[in-house]
Design brief:
single chain; alpha/beta; Rossmann fold; 6-stranded parallel β-sheet; 17 helices; 39% helix; globular; Glycosyl transferase family 1 domain-containing protein; glycosyltransferase activity; Glyco_trans_1
Amino acid sequence: MGKKVLILSTGDVNGAYEAMYKVAHIMKNMGHEVVMCVKHKTKNEEFIKAYNPPSSTAVKPGLLTSVINKVKTRLNIATPKETKKTISTDRKYSFFSKDEITENINIDSLLKTTGFTPDFVFTGMTIDFLNSTDLLNLYNATQAKIYNITVDMNHFTGGCHFSWGCDGYVRGCDENCPAITKEDEKVIAKNNFERKYENAKKANFKIIAGSGLTLIQAQNSKIYKDQKTIYNINSLIDTTLLNDRNKPIAKQIFSLSDDCFYILTGAQNMEDPRKGFAYLIEALELLDQELPQELKEKIVLLVVSNTVNEEFDKVTFKKQKIDYIKDYRLLSLLYQAADIFINSSIEDSGPMMVSEALACGTPVVGFDTGVVMNMVINDYNGYKAPLKDSRKLADGIKKIFELDKDSYSVFSKNAVKQVEEFSSYEYASAIFSKILEQND
């Protein structure tokens, strides 16, 4: 019997928002009644609905929030809205979720927008849309089962989306938060975490991992460590679009030479320190020093990004910049045309590009984090290098480069197989079936 499923996300395109759009599509294909409610609607599908607040004025806070804010005003303590304006953070932590206390949406308006009372609610990234207090209010109004999907770490931290080694999410965030730079503001992380922890317990929130790394992080987190089973959906790949069916002719489509070895890498923003491109540049410099000239001539670096780091000028191999591709059919062909995909991320919950490349039969070499942790297997479909180890990263690239045609073909087939088994829509459907069919 079909369920009523509500997907909540700030948007419906790019990165984490696109992941939730895929979740919605998978569940619709499973026969469930699905609405994806977003703050910013871009796609034109009817099942995606923009949240319609009760009026153009600010949403009135609930009784408890009103009382708390009145007390804070009398005591001259900053309210959550004031905190949003003044909080100072270290940008690398992406401390975007700054307030878990203030109510952001009107539940009656949300349900009116949705058009039904959901049985299940799935959330991804909801920055500037709603928080865990809103989810608790939604639970109290509907008794729906609520699942948070780890597009990053935010569902179990005090506000940051990437921890950079901080274990606050394990022990409970406190006044020593490294993401907040002003001492008198660090308590915000503690307050956020405590409220998020309380809300999760009251509404029995559950977590779903989006990668091997976030699975381990969720299992260790204070908020979700007692959850009996945490499923991992390993990115969500539509293999009808991303596959290896055109790999034999993909190079011709892009006018690439069959005699060259094409290294593909990229990100929306290559200036982001999380993406670790400095380590890739070091790895390529090592290869440049070690390979004879006749072999270096065969290597071409394909860089896909909106902005290319100026440091790439140091790379002596042939280079070609490709504007960031949004069309999945064209992107699939590019992955298939490449001989290897390099993921140099050092702090990442994904990225999606790893599983996308594998789906297209392209071996992956990357640092042992994010989705690389369990989707890339040494001597099977690529190679993993210890974090920030440019030497090992270079070794992995060289190993793929030196494979003979038959050995490369085996790696390519294994890459596709890994996605079909652990990252495809079919794989995710089986997981969601287990979740939606439960009776507890």
